[in-house]
Amino acid sequence: MLKGKDILTTAQFSLPELNLIMDTAAKYEEKIKAQEIIRDLDGKVVACLFFEPSTRTRLSFESAANRLGARVISMANAASSSVAKGESLPDTIRTVDGYADIIVMRHPMTGSAQIAADNAQHPFINAGDGSGQHPTQALLDIYTIRKERGNLSDLTITFLGDLKYGRTVHSLGYLMTLFKNKMIFVSPPSLKMPAELTADFRNRGAEIEETDDLKSALAQSDLVYVTRIQRERFENPEEYERLKGSYIIDQKIIDEAKKGITILHPLPRVDEISTEIDDYEGAAYFRQAHNGIYIRMALLALVSGIKVI
Hints:
By secondary structure, the protein is α/β, with parallel strands linked by helices. It folds into 2 domains: 10-133 and 292-303, Aspartate/ornithine carbamoyltransferase (Rossmann fold, 3-Layer(aba) Sandwich), CATH 3.40.50; 135-288, Aspartate/ornithine carbamoyltransferase (Rossmann fold), CATH 3.40.50. It has 11 helices and 9 strands. Strand 1 (45-50), helix 2 (56-67) and strand 2 (71-75) form a beta-alpha-beta unit. Helix 5 crosses helix 11 (285-303). It is globular, with a radius of gyration of 19 Å. The mean pLDDT is 92.
C-alpha cells in the first residue's frame, strides 16, 4: 500500500493507510519489547539529512533504522556538508539518492520536502520542512492518542501555543479531520492557526472553535496538545520575548481542566509545561516521544515494501 511512496504531508493519507501504519507500529513495539532481533531492512541504507537541529526526530529515525537492521548514513547540519559551499538542495538530494535506499530529511525551508522528493528516485520521508509539515510527528501523535485514550474518534482536542509556525499542529490537524474530532485553537492573536489551514480543516468537515480562553477550552477537552513558542521562527527577538510564556500548563490549570485530560507535547519544552505536571498520570509527552521509534520503524519498513501484519 505504501511501497515506494514518499511521505510528505498528513493530507496524503487515507484511513486504511493510517490503520496499516499504526498496526505495523504496534507489531514492531511488541517485537522490541520482546527483545527480538529484527532484520527486515538488512542490507538497506537509510540517509538522515538534518539541516536543522533535532534530538527526538533524528535519533528516533536512526534508532528505528538500526533496530530494523539497516545501516545509517547521516548529516547533522548544513555546515558539515557541501551546502556550506553553495550546493543546491536538488543537487544534494540527487547525490545522496545514489548512496541510500531511503532518504529522511529535515530542512528549514517550507516546501523543501517536495523539492527533495522530486529529485529522489528512492522513497523520501519529510522529517519537517520549515513551518510546513511534520507528518511523522503527527503519526506518532495519533498512535499515542490511540494508546492513551483507547480510540481516535469522538474526542475534543485543544491545540495550544504557536499555531502559526507550529508544523506539528498543522500536520495533526489534518489527521484529526479524518476522525471527526472537535478542535479548539488557543493562541496569542499573532500566532493563530493560518486561515487557509483552518478553512481547509472546516472543508473536510471539522468542527473548530478559536479562542484565547484556555480555561474554557480545557474544561471541555479530552486532550491538550501543547506547543512551544518557537524562537527560531521569529525575525524580531522582541516579538518572541513578548509572546513566550503566553500560556503555561501548571497544576492549577490541570485541576480546573476536564477530569482525566491527556497532555501531549512534541518537545522540546521550554516553560509552557511546568515540571510539576510530569508526575500527572495523563502527562503523556515522554511516552509520546518514545512512540516515535515504532512509528518510524513502520514507515521505513512500509515504504520498502515490508509487511509484518
